[in-house]
Structures are given as C-alpha cells and as structure tokens.
Amino acid sequence: MGSMFFRAGVAAALSSLVFAGMAAAEPKHGIAMYGEPALPPDFVSMPYVNPDAPKGGRVSAGEVGSFDSLNPHIQKGRVPWQLRFLAYESLMGRSLDEPFTLYGLLAESIEVSEAGDWVEFVLREGARFSDGSPVTVEDVIWSYETLGTEGHGRYRGSWAKVEKAEQTGPRSVKFTFNVEDRELALIMGLRPILKKAQWEGKDFTESGLTEIPITSAPYIIDDFEAGRFVLLKRDPDYWGADVPFRRGTNNVDEIRMEFFADSTAMFEAFKAGALTSHRETNAQKWDQQFDFPRVTSGEVVKAEIPHARPSGITGFAMNTRREVFADWRVREAMIQVFNFEFINEKLNGGDQPRITSYFSNSVLGMEHEPAEGKVLELLQAQDENLLPGAIEGYSLPVSDGTARNRSGIVKAQDLLAEAGWEIKDGVMTSQTGQPLRFTILLQSGSAENQAILNIFTQALERIGVFATVETIDSAQYRERVDAFDFDMTYTRRGLSLSPGNEQLAYWGMDAADTNGSRNIAGIKNPGIDAMVQVMLTSESREDYLAAVKALDRMLMSGRYVIPLWYSQISRLAHNKEMKRPDMVPAYGDWPGYLPDVWWIEE
User: Fold this and answer.
1) Coil, helix or strand for 202?
2) What is the pTM of this model?
3) Angle, nearest 10°, between helix axes 447-461 and 328-337?
C-alpha cells in the first residue's frame, strides 16, 4: 500500500520546530509543546486514521522472552510491553503526526496558566472504566500519587515537581508545579489512570498475575498463560468510541501476544502462519530470507514504512560505574576497535546508516564541526564538564571496510597507552598488573548481537583485550541490568522530536544511582543535567534547538555507547488481510500505530 508521508503543514512544523510560549489560560481541546495544535477543536479524527474502518478480526504478534506480571506501572516483574499502551488510558492522547501535541481523551479540555506553573483538566462526563464505573477526579489524583511514589521510575521524576494536586470542581483536577518546566503540563496529560477501588488493601508494588487490571481503555485482558501468551479483546462497551482522538482506531477485535524463547523461533512461527505480523530490523535478512511460501503466494505483504523521528541510540553501552570503563580514553578505544563498516557489510550488506548523533535523521542532531553561536555559548558555560570533542567537534571513526581495521587498532592502542595500559606478554595490562578484561551481558535469543560481538571480541584480542560474552535468560537479564550488574550490554533508547524531561531519566545524575533506571551507562555529568534544564526552560525556538544540539554533543563526546545503525524505515511483514491508511504519520511505526490504526479486511 502506498504512503502519503507528510501533510504540508505537519512537515513545516517538524522542520521549523516553532517553539511558542504558553498562551493565556483558557480551556482548550489540545496542547502543543511547539505553537498550537494542528487540528481544530471540531476535528473529526486524527489525520492518519480511517474513520470508517471496519471492526473485527484478530491479529497476533510475537515477543522474545517471558512475563510474570500484568502491571506495567511498577518496577518489579516482566510485562508484555504493549500492555502499557493498549490496556490503559490517559487524560490526553498523543498525536503521532506532530512533534509533541496532545488532544483530549479522558479529559475533554486542558487549561494551562500563562506562566506554565499549573495545569487543569476537566474529565469527560461519560468516561468509564471497563467495569462500568465512572472515572473520577479521585481516581486521577490517586493514580498520579501512587505512580509517582510507588510506581516505575519513569513516573517519579515528574511527580517530584508537583507541589499540589487538587480537585477544583465535580470533574476538574488541577496540578500546581514547584519548578519552572514548560513540558510538565503535557507530561501530566499522559499518565495512565487506574481505578483506585481495585487496589484498596493491596500492595500495588507486588501485583503480578493475580490482579487483572480494570481499565478505561478500548481493550481488556480476556485470557493469558504465564510466560506464553496474553489475549486482549476489544471492549464492546468501551466508553470512548466516538471521542475524536479514538475514532477510527482500535478496530481489531482480538490482539494476541505470543512469547518465544528466541528470535529464530518467533520468525519460524510467523513463517508458519502462527503470527500475523513481524518486524524485521536486519536489512540483509529482509532482502534474503523473506522469500518463504507465504510471501511468494501473496498471503504475506512486505511493507516499508517511513518515519521522520530521530534515530535515538542503539548499541553497546559501557557501564561507567565499573573501573574498567571509567576513563573516556578506554571507552574511545573500544569505539575505535569496533569495526562498524566491516560488521555492517557482513550483517546488512552495508546498507544501514550508522548512528552518528543521538538525534540522527532529524533537525535536532548535532553538527560534527566545531561548535558555533548559541551552541558554543552553552557548552562554554559547562567547560569543566566537557570531554574532548564536545566543542571541537566529534565524529565516529570510519574504517577501510576490511577485517584488519588497522587505523582503528593503532588509535585504540595509543589511547590505552595514554590511559596507562600497556601490552605485556600479549595481554593489555594496567600499571598495577591487572589485565583489561570485561564481560558483555546479552539476553538469550539475540542472534544478531551475538554475531556482532563475535567480530568485536576477535578484534579486541588483537590488542590483548579479552571480552567474554555472557548470555542469560530474560528474567536474569532484567535483574542484572536493573542492578547495573554488567560491564557492557546492548541498549536501545528511542528518542522523540520533542526531547524533554525523559532525558534526565536516560542520562541524568539522579537516575545513575537509582536501580532499575534507564541510565544504563551510569552517566553522572552535571553539565548534562544543566543542559536538559535549559531545554525545559527555553523561551525561544533558537534557544531550545541550541540546547538539544549541545546536549547531543555532550552525549556523543562522552563515548558512553558504541553506536550501531538505524533505519529510516520500519520493515514490517504482515498478513494481506491487515490494512492501514495511506497516510503514514511523522512518527511512523511507533506505539499507537500498530495495531491501533489498522483494520482487517477478510
């Protein structure tokens, strides 16, 4: 199916990133971080949906790993990742076609003070939970407080910035902030709303498989088997079917999530017809292994779905909490040894572009030349917190594409020598006689990562560095990573067109010491925290973009991750009965797209 990628207005908004101040307080149907919402108050549906899509049918998708909880809002346990998006509703819904814009969902309106120091929501009168009970202001306040104090770490940072949550009317709730943070009003609109009565007398932090969530979302959990599958069914009595944000979405009657021990078993299940869709991240496999009978017969369609979101960071994170990776020169040496061009050719036929910026593929990405203008001013203010390359410009090494990678090997040896290491009897050794050894932690089923690391570890041996790849099951892996019990591990962090508070969760100092946080590399740089604060308080488009680019420079020159590749498209194979609208939103294949806006045509 063809794709009309951007409407002209949305494309202009993405390229110019117009950053506007909060307008005078008045109730509105939506809110945008940049300027005004693209859709008017009387919009019928989101532009990337089919408002007349038929209802019915069933889809099934696979996940590698297992699960032991149905509560995606707590730190403990493993949960099917889609539950957080399909089984819970928030006050506002996020548009996939604008950088950061929300429209009313459980709430019919939002009002923000001119200074941005409070936000008020008015609930829709007909909003209901799946048991038929109304969604109340009491449920909203309880949800925010519980998630902010007992929930997953992703919720706690923003709750700490709330001075007061109060009911201001029969259906209205107001949050007053204790800091200057222009993004908070939008973040408050995106928290899941839970039913307070369901959790009275129960330990929210220990909820596993015994508590089936009562939800206000279009889907409810109909059946599951621990570690094997979860079946969601569309609620025929869902309260919000005619809410403009929901019209034309959630068209499929049943969604089944199947779990597999590894990616090979999952792919074979798709080939056999047990799954209705499969995302493929390996370009070479996409070109060479998708010629099985269901494809050649036309039963399966290969779709390449474009997007305009940043690349984010994908690669192997080095744990700076460990002495072996505390020195930036050692981290840079690992990047030099990593022969990207050779690996990319072997695994992808050389087709995939490398991540050279945390915001590659977008206007937010840093330039690799020396910093200028406002970017330079911001970096100079953090001079004592900078590593080489932040101001001068930083670029990843480019090898000659052969297995030898001679230039990278020589540079790595020079860097290690500067850091106090030397080769003795074929082993890279510290001044105290300790060999340079470390372990790379992998989750079982990561065949592609294993292939990458086979090449990497062999290259390391050429300079007397010995790395061991330790592969463990998903439960052990989650525990180890949450406790930061690793030297190096695979990481993947998606980034949006409107980076903000979540950046502190990803690379902030407080998160570095919080078990279970997303600051995998243990980054503790006060300059990075300060740069995020500049982003959150910028009054102009120019200042905001400069702060993001400065942050990008600090992250790249920090050498925290050995970057891999990204794709400007999503490769999605699916049954021919699965249909999607012609228009693809800016975020492309992103949470909220599949299965949300798709439908089944028998």
Assistant:
1) coil
2) 0.82
3) 110
